[in-house]
Structures are given as C-alpha cells and as structure tokens.
Amino acid sequence: MAASVFVSLALLVCVWLAHRRHLLTGLVLPLQFFAVGTAAVALDPPPMAAVLPATPGAMGVLLLEGIVLKAPEQRAGADVFVVDVVGSSTVLGRPLQPTTGRMVLSMARAHGPSRLAGVGDSERETEGYGGRPMLCGEPGDRIRFRARVHSPKPAMFPGDVSRRAQLARRGIALTGVTVEPVEGRGCLRTEMRARWGPRLAAEWLRGRVSAAIQATASPGAAGLIRALAIGDRSGVSDDDRRAYARAGLSHLLAVSGLHLGIVSGVFVVGLTWVFVRRPRIALGIGARRLAAAVGLPFVVAYTLLVGAGPSSVRAAIMLAVGLFAIIVGRTRDAATTLSVAVLAMLVLSPRAVDDVSFQLSFAAVASLMRVYPALERRWTSALMGAGAGPWALVGRGSGAFFGRGRRLIARMKEAFLASLAATIGTLPVMATHFGEVSVVGLVANIPAVPWASLVVVPSSLLGGLVAVVNPEWAGPVLWVASRAVEALSWMAAKAGALDGATIAVPRPGTMGCLLFYSGVLGLTTRWTSAWGQWARRVAGLLLGIFVLFVAGGPGFLRATTETRVTFLPVGQGDAIVIELPGPKTVVVDTGPMWRGAHTAAERVLIPFLKYRGVRHIDVLVITHAHADHIGGLATLVDAFPIDVLWWTGDRREGPKALLDVADGLAARHPPLDHARLVAGDAELEVLGPVQPATAYEDVNDGSVVLRLRVGRRVVLLTGDAEAVSEAELARKFGGMLRADVLKAGHHGSRSSSSERFLDWVTPRHVVMTVGEGNRFGFPHKEALERVARHGAEVWRTDRDGAVTVIIGEDGALDVSGYARGTRGRQD
Q: I want to staple 628 with a disulfide (CB 3.0 to 4.6 A). Which of 305, 512, 592, 796 is the partner?
C-alpha cells in the first residue's frame, strides 16, 4: 500500500512536470521516489511475527521483562501499557533470555499494587497516578511481570478492523494479559528510568497530566477532558463515543491539527506580542522571527505531550514548515507545506498510509485548501451577490449593531463552509472505513469546534498541567473545563439524537473514490480554456454516478442472483446473515452479550450488515430465547428497521428485558407453520420445532430449524437443536433433510449432530459457531468425530472467522473462511 502511494505521487508529479515541459526531470523523478520508498521501508521493517523465542510454550504464560514506552491507558479495571520486551523465560526461576520486540500489556488492578525491587527499599510501595498505588511502572522504567501472551487477531469478518494490522502500524507484534503475580504482586519495577529521552519524558508528563485530571476533575467529565486535552481516549465511555460519532464530532476526541494550531498559535502570537513590546529581548532578530524560532521546539514538545498521533504529527510538520518559512523570510505555500507533511510522515512510517486517522487528516486539510475556496466563490455569487433578504439588510445597515451582525454572519458562513468542505473531502474515507456519514455534523461543528478549541482544550490542558504541581490550584480551572465539557457533550447528545443524524452508505471501493475525487477536482478547478465547460460537465457526471451509487448502494452491491449465507464470529453464540436475491436480508439470531455491556451485535453483526450495504432487515429469526442467541437484540432493533419476526414465543430461560424487546417489535409475527420466504430461486422455510417449543423439556430442542433451498443446493440451520429434536426431524422429514451445508446444532455439543441425523443430512460442509477458548469446551470431541466419519469438512468461527456460503445462479457452491483466507471444496 505504501509503495502504491509513492508510485502515485511520482506519477502525479511527472504529469505536472511534463505539462511544464520539464521532461528530463519527469523521467528521472520516479527513480528518486523509488529510492526514497525503498529506503523508508528499510528503515521501518515490519514487526516480528512473534517477539518471543520459538519454543513450544512461547504463546503461553511467560515471565517477561521490558521497558515501559507509553503512559498507561487507565481503563475500567485495568491499566494498558506498551512495553519494549528485552527478556523472556518460559520457566519460572530460569534466567531471562534476550528478547526484542514490542507488546501491549493489560494489567488488571485486582493483582494489587506493585513494589519496587532493586531501587532502594524493596518493600516501599510505588506512588502511582492520581495518588493510588501504581500497578507497574512509568515510561522509561524496567518492569518484570508474568503474562499470557497472544498474537493479535486479524480481521475476522468483512467490515472488521484488524487488530493485528492496527498494532503492526505501531511496530507491535503481541498482546498480553497479566496472570498470577510475580512474588505475590502484579509486577516488579526493577529499575527506574532505565531508558530516557525527550519522547519518554513527554510520555511521563502525559501520564502525570492524565492522572491528575482523573483525580481532580469531576468523574463524569474526566475521561472526556483527558481525550480533549492530551489525546488519551481510554476514559471515554462507549455512549459518549457513539454520541460524538453520530453528531459528527468524533474528531474533537482526538487532539487534531486544529487543537495543535490554536495552542501553538496562541503561544507564538503571545511571544510576538512580548517581543514587540520588549525589543531588547529580540536581539535584533525581529520579534516575529524570534517567536517563530522559539515556537518550533514548543510545537514538537506539545505534539509529543498529546501522543504524536497522525493528525497531530501532520499539523506539527505543517506548523514547523510555516514557522521555518517565517524564520528564513520565505513565503508560505499551503499545498507545498501539506506535501512536505505527507512525504515526511510516509518516510518516517510508511505503514501510516493505512491508518484511518492519517487518511482523514490529509483528506480534510486538502479539501479545505481545494474545496473551501470554490464553495466561497459559489456562496458569494449565489447569495451575497443576489442583494436580497437578510444579507442585503445587514449589508446596507450602518453602526455597531450592523457591523457586529455582518461579522457574525461572516464567521458563521466561514464555519459552515469549512465544515462542508471537510465533510466533502472525507466522505469516501468515512464511507470506506465506517459505512456511515454524519449529516448533522455539518451544523453541529459550527458551535462545537470553536467551543472545544477556545474553551475546553485550553482549560483542560492548563488544569492538567497545574494539577501535576498542585491539585488544589487546578480545582477551579478543571471545574471550568468540566462544565465546558458537559456543554460540549450536551451539544453532541442533542445533535446525535436527531432523526437522520447519520446515513448508512456503501463502501465505495477504489473506483468509487476515483469517481468522487475526480469529480470534485473538476468542479473546483477554475477553468480558463474553451474546454473548461466540457471538463466541468464531465466532472458533474462523475459525481452524479457516485451519488447514484451511494443512493442505491445496497442495490448495486447486492442486486445479484446469488445467495449468500454468512456465519459470523460472535464468540460463544449465533448470528447468521442470509442475503437473498432481490435483495432481501434475513438475520438468524443476534449473538451474545459481551463483557462491559457490549454486545456481539454492536461489534460484529451491525458492522457486517453496514459493510454489506444493508439498510433494513426483511426477516429476523429468533431460534430460541437463550442469551447467547438474543443478547444483541435490543442493539439490532435500534440500528435497523425490521419487517417480520419469526419466533416460537417460548420465553423460558430468556432475559426478560430482551424478551420484552421482542414482544414490543412492530414487525409482523406470523405463525411459524406458515413462515416462508421466497426470493427468486431461493426459498427459506421453517422445518422445526416439530412440536410447540414449550412441549420440550430442554429449551434448546425447541429451536427454530430453517431450510434454505436454492435450486439443488440446501443449507440447513438447526439453532441449538439436540438429539431429541434431531430425531423428530428425521422421523418427519427423512430425506428432505439432505443438505450441502449443515450448521451443527448447539455449537457442536456431544448431544447434537447425532449419527442418525447425519445419516439423513449427509452434509459436505458442517459449520460450528463457537467462541475461542469457551468454557464449555465446544466443539466436543465426540461431535467432531461423528462429523469426520461422514466425510464432511468442518468450519469453525473461532478459527476461520466468518464462514461464508455462496450459491450461484448456476448452482455452484463456494464455502470460505474469512480470517485464514481458506476455501472449501467447490462443486
């Protein structure tokens, strides 16, 4: 991906040079880009596949030692560290072997406070952030701990975010969770400041500021203040994240270029003001130049303090280029400055090109440079030039009142156009990564951005810095920051709660992005030649095609004659999506509840549906009322309209709150013995339960059993049906049970997938929906052996990720696992 960016940049520059008739330079420049790209990749090698020694127990519980690199993220019940591992051992008591690499370590606070070892008094408790005992160490410290080590998961389903890729961009290869303590404690800090430097010093201060805010600010606002002041989002609740995302204000929760520009700008302007009034301080250099020279290290220091994320690094580079231009007396060019920032970031870290923050940051800034002036011209000609309405009234008036009115309208216009320009520029990026775009953000950003930048960020940062020195002095400042944050959250909540605040859009892909940006480029260019009108029409046509794609995205994506069944990896539970020609969408179960009030629907099912361009659900099937099958029901109902519900109505052993949600659905609820859905050649029908669900002693045996028939192909979904229900199905339907693909009953339990049932079904593929390391031991060995004896290929969602079955119009069958890229036998 990074190589393609370098090649694209080279081609664009070569086209420009050829246009300028610098042909020789244009021919040589690609070699220069190739050399720079090769050097950048060599300087930034990919992370090791495994940090630890290649031993049989290398991915189990290990004794490790390393240097803390980042201020800990204070999450609920645990602190999360980034550790540069320097030693490891698979056996307690043996000497540590030299090891290299980075890992993310999650340390539960339940392990109790650590104590210093090898740093003076070994029994002295470590003073931690916010006055509480510290579980481990601070940036630069060497620590020793025992952890269960894992390799980060790849993307497990279409639309998933790869944790492995995210960490790889930061040079991190492994994750770990502390287990039994070392010498009775969570970890040992064996050496203070074993490694030190500007970045570690900034991280140390960042951790102190974060903890001071957490300890001093009001509990409800502390997490948001930390995010807005220093970019530490670990304390932001999921409800707040969702509210800010729906309102189009998520960028405020990361220290962006706007924040950095305002804080640095205030610093440099303040210095200039001082130097102008005290000429002797300027030493004959000039007040503006000296202020810019002093501002350069300030920009670097503040960027490190806020965590040096992609958006803040981009802004820092652009600010540094601008300040350097002032120092040397050169004029500044925004496009050149942005180009320098792009190249510098990619040289330092080529993997940054895959980071969504990098893409959003540069897309927004480039759009402000290109689209904003075009919008300004159009606004002036269409509204101000019309000489009518309130614009003319304010424009003709005289006096202070009308002057303030004109300035207010001008500022509101600028804020709206800037918000619109940034939204236009980031639309394909947002659609690609998130599958939805906030519409209300166009207006919500007008009051929110200046409020956050001029009130919340300065008061939060000042309060945090003062709190490190004296918490009592910081109290009044953080009180102001808390009230300001509450006001900002109120704006986000009100804006995000509006109907239609966000719209789901299909992921445009490479061609869609090219269409969009080509159209925007053409429409915003000030054409002077005779071909200009034709170029503008072509650009409008390209944008029109893109808009049609977005408006009818689900149809474009799914208007095929194929049938697709996807078994999603929701942990220990079921969530299955059936996509039929039409298109029609059927969801079978919604997955379990997860720890921390999260649901599989929120993290897996809904992102997948949005990725596939689904906007409403034709049929929702609840196979039975167990929590691992309906845990995400409320979340799904909030996200999508549902036309029809298929459910037995058996409420036994089900969570009452979720069953009340099912009862309250406005969807039609036909009797199951008449439940049938036909779409093209595909037919979905209910086979079981054979008796009323409440007649079975075991709730699992009352599961809804579905048969999907597409021509000669059959997929059989059995919910959690076990031996009793399987026997009844075999007696009633016999050979009608034959299927190419069988979803194993009850996650591969030993009491399901019986011999007689498999004899009737004769599946070629068996899918087992199981959670990794689940406490039930699913799938059971006996079930796996029975399936193997029948010659079927086994697919597991814990190992293969999403398992997708595609049936073509010609009857071709394709089965594949997303996580491992495996494909089954095709017929």
A: 592
**Which residues are CB-neighbours of 326 under 8 A, at least 6 positions away?**
288, 289, 292, 332
Q: Are 788 and 779 in contact (CB under 8 A)?
A: no
Q: What is the pLDDT of residue 458?
A: 86
Assess whether 250 and 135 both reside in one domain.
Answer: no
Q: Are residues 86 and 101 in the same domain?
A: yes
What band does 823 get if pLDDT is binned at 50, 70 and 90? Answer: low
| Residue linked to tokens 């045996």 | 701
Beta bridge partners of 575: none
Q: Are residues 445 and 527 in the same domain?
A: no
- Between strands 61-68 and 822-823, the pairing is unpaired
pLDDT category at 17 given cuts 50, 70, 90 is very low
Whether residue 214 lies inside any domain: the answer is: no
Residue 116 included in any domain: yes
pLDDT band at 404; cut points 50, 70, 90 = low
DSSP string for residues in 656-715? HHHHHHHHT--SB---GGG-EEEETTEEEEEEE-SS-GGGSSSGGGG--EEEEEETTEEE
Least confident of 205-209, 386-390, 500-504, 586-590: 386-390
Looking at the fold, whether 323 and 410 belong to one and the same domain comes out as yes
Contact criterion met (CB below 8 Å) for 82 and 104? yes
Q: DSSP label at 66?
A: E
**CB neighbourhood size of 820 (10 A):** 12
Between helices 356-382 and 400-434, what is the axis angle to 10°?
140
The per-residue pLDDT for range 603-652, each reduced to its tens digit, is 999 999 988 888 889 999 999 999 999 999 999 998 899 999 999 989 89
* 721 closest CA partner among 707, 702, 740, 741: 702
Judged against a pLDDT cut of 80, whether residue 111 lies above it is answered with no
Residue 54 maps to a domain:
no
Buried residues in 683-693 as b, exposed as e (16+ CB within 10 A): bbebbbbbeeb
Q: State residue 54's pLDDT score.
A: 41
Q: What string of H, E and C letters represents the secondary structure of 559-627? A: CCCCEEEEECCCCCCCCEEEEECCCEEEEECCECECHHHCEHHHHHHHHHHHHCCCCCEEEEEECCCCH
Q: Do 7 and 71 share a domain, yes or no?
A: no
Number of domains in the chain: 5
- Alpha-carbon distance of 518 to 527, in angstroms, equals 15
One domain, residues 160 and 276: no
3-state secondary structure 469-495: HCHHHHHHHHHHHHHHHHHHHHHHHHH
If asked whether residues 157 and 275 sit together in one domain, one would say no
pTM over 0.90: no
Residues 305 and 344 in one domain: yes
Strand partners, 668: 644
User: In terms of residue numbers, what domain contains 37?
Assistant: 2-43
CB 461 within 8 A of CB 232: no
Residue 313 one-letter amino acid = V
Residue 578 pLDDT > 60 = yes
